[in-house]
Design goal:
Number of helices: 9
Radius of gyration: 16 Å
Largest sheet: 6 strands, parallel
Strand content: 15-25%
Length: about 210
C-alpha cells in the first residue's frame, strides 16, 4: 500500500526526504511534486487538485495520504471526494476552512518579494499569487464528518496560525487524534524530521491494519 507525501506551498518533494528516511515503509513511499503536476497549465487550486486526484487515482488499492499545509488541503479534499480510496490520513498544519485574511496578508507579502526567491520552489511568483487567490473560497466544514478512516492531525507547538483549527479539525473528524510537535513551527517535516517520523510510525503501527 502506497504512502503518498504531499509538500506545502514553498516546499519541494525533498522537504520529506529526511522524514521518510526514518520511517519503516520507505520502499512504498511516494513524494509528489506539486509544481510538476500542473506544468503547462494555469496555476489554480482547481487545476492542481484535478492533477493531484489523477496522481492518486492511478493506484488500484487505497492509499495512505500525508500532507502539510497546501498538501494537507489537497489530501483532505481528496479524502472527502474519494472516501473509498483513502486508507488513512495525516494532516499537518492543515486548515479545513481557508483563513482569508491570512491568505490576503501572505499575498501582499509575496508581491513585495523578488521573483528570484520563488525560483527554487517550482512555482513562479505569479503562480504563488494566483494559487493563494483561488484557494480563498475553500471550506470543507460541512463534509468533514463523512471521513471515517483513521486520521492523525499534527501541528507544531509554535505554529500559532494553525494550532486552534488543527485541534478543532481533530475533534470534528470521527476517527482522529491530535498531536502537537514540541518546539517546532509550521514546517515540521524540515524542522524536526526524525521526531515527525517517530510520530508517523507510531500512528501507522497502532491504527493501520495492513
Amino acid at each position: 500500500m502506497k504512502q503518498i507525501y504531499v509538500h506545502g506551498l514553498g516546499q519541494t518533494p525533498d522537504s520529506w526526504t529526511k522524514t521518510i528516511a526514518h520511517t519503516q515503509n520507505r520502499e512504498q513511499s511516494v513524494c509528489l511534486d506539486l509544481p510538476a503536476l500542473i506544468r503547462g497549465k494555469q496555476a489554480t487550486y482547481q487545476n492542481l487538485y484535478a492533477a493531484f486526484s489523477d496522481a492518486c487515482n492511478k493506484y488500484d488499492e487505497p492509499v495512505d495520504l500525508c500532507g502539510l499545509s497546501l498538501g494537507g488541503v489537497l489530501v483532505l479534499n481528496y479524502a472527502i471526494d474519494h472516501l473509498e480510496k483513502v486508507h488513512s490520513l495525516v494532516l499537518i498544519a492543515t486548515p479545513y476552512k481557508m483563513p482569508r485574511h491570512l491568505l490576503r496578508f501572505q499575498n501582499m507579502l509575496f508581491r513585495f518579494m523578488p521573483k528570484s526567491m520563488f525560483q527554487e520552489m517550482g512555482f513562479s511568483k505569479r503562480d504563488f499569487l494566483q494559487l493563494c487567490k483561488t484557494m480563498m473560497p475553500l471550506d470543507f466544514s460541512d463534509s468533514l464528518p463523512q471521513i471515517s478512516c483513521p486520521a492523525l492531525v499534527i501541528c507544531g507547538e509554535k505554529d500559532t496560525a494553525n494550532k486552534k483549527s488543527s485541534v478543532k479539525l481533530a475533534n470534528i473528524l470521527v476517527n482522529a487524534e491530535f498531536h502537537e510537535l514540541k518546539d517546532t513551527g509550521h514546517e515540521v517535516n524540515t524542522e524536526a524530521p526524525e521526531r515527525l517520523a517517530t510520530v508517523l510510525c507510531s500512528f501507522y503501527d497502532i491504527h493501520i491494519q495492513r
